[in-house]
Design goal:
It contains 8 helices and 21 strands. α1 packs parallel to α4 and α4 packs parallel to α6. The longest helix is centred in the last third of the chain and has 17 residues.
Length: 477
Amino acid sequence: MVRSVRVAVIGAGVAGLNAARELHREGHTVVVFEKRHDLGGTWLYDSRVESDSLSLDPARAVVETSLYHSLRTNIPRQIMGFLDFPFAKRRHGDQRTFPGHEEVLRFLNEFADEFRLREFIRFSTEVVRVERGEVRKRNEEWVVESRRRRSGRWSESESESEWGVVVREVYDAVVVCNGHFTEPQLADVPGIEKWRGYQIHSHNYRVPEPFTGQKQIVVLIGLGPSAFDISKEVATVAKEVHIAARAPNITVGKWGPHENIWLHKMIEFVDEDGKMVFQDGSSVHADTILYCTGYKYHFPFIELDGIVTIDDNRVGPLYKHVFPPRLSPSLSFIGMPKQDTPFLTTQLQSKWLANVLSGKVFLPTEGDMMSDIKNYYHHMEERGLPKRFTHYLPPNEMEYRNWLLAQVGMPPLKEWRGKMFRECLKSAMTKLDGYRDQWDDDYWDAIIASQEGNLLVNGQEVGVAEDVSKSSVLSTK
């Protein structure tokens, strides 16, 4: 029997928009809560930063995006779209294969308009508490408390007077889509409590100008995509940039063609006089530490009594990164995976979720789901992976997405998607300078055309080979 339930979706970013569309397609009643004044989540740029440059003050007004002004995508647009709504080039848009964040936001707005998703969104509305209802006993009711911002806009004060009264509503299911790029993760640096220099997390970085100075020496911690971009940008205005990374195969010394960027092992310790000593034995007197050290999962609004916990950035237990077994299927998390193509993955997760809630697809028993999770954790331990890598998909990203497709009776993805992602990841991980602008579009267009026939040519939509809206759905265990 097909069911229709009332669902609260928290967040109107990529995950929330996907969840809203798929849930509505399955006939569910959807309400999307979005704290900000518009949709887009992390892709909605805000030039403002937080009052606390390290984002440690719990009383601070939180800025809900970490975008810096110059940010471009680090994966090509061909694998950033949805199966039935490609991220195609537009005549008057950013024509680059790796476009700027403005183009991504425009795409998300077009997606929302195409499927009339704004009708489901309550903008400037914050979810302050989510808890299980007391009426029923089988995790089938949730109480959601929310409040609407009076002005509709972000304020630095973030005082209680900015908000209206708290409203309590009951839902059959809650889908958490609040993202994981707003709560900074900091590195442990011995001696930092005595250091007198300036510290900032990349969450609060927008432009390089604040680092301008002929004597400004910046130590940047991290070697991910943001560190790759920001280090080169800061080096255009600062005297020196020194990158400290814990990667085991780092090559110590000057970085490629950059005259004022150096690579180091991680920081051994810092002195209060400003001296930093690296694990490779070198040292430097720095003015600023810039942390490009990633983010923590953060769900301050959920009351779960320890059923779902966060331990070293492992959120769990979650079956296939989506369902906590004891609370499934009425509670789910969309968009948890990292180092992935999030637009497509959240679409597939949302389609699976929507069909589970409607009763077309069945989850395994709670015991079987827990066994699957324990096996996954055991496999991580055998590979020597710490808990913080729980939600990293590579090298199994294609296997995971094809598993999701199989749950809803759809065929597997074409091989070009996995090949393109791995090639892009390789370029980014090896810090190949200019890889975005050196990307061989002709080569990839030929590969795509040979497998898809009529889906994308040079990023242009000329037909749809994969129809997800009319796919049959199979009930699976």
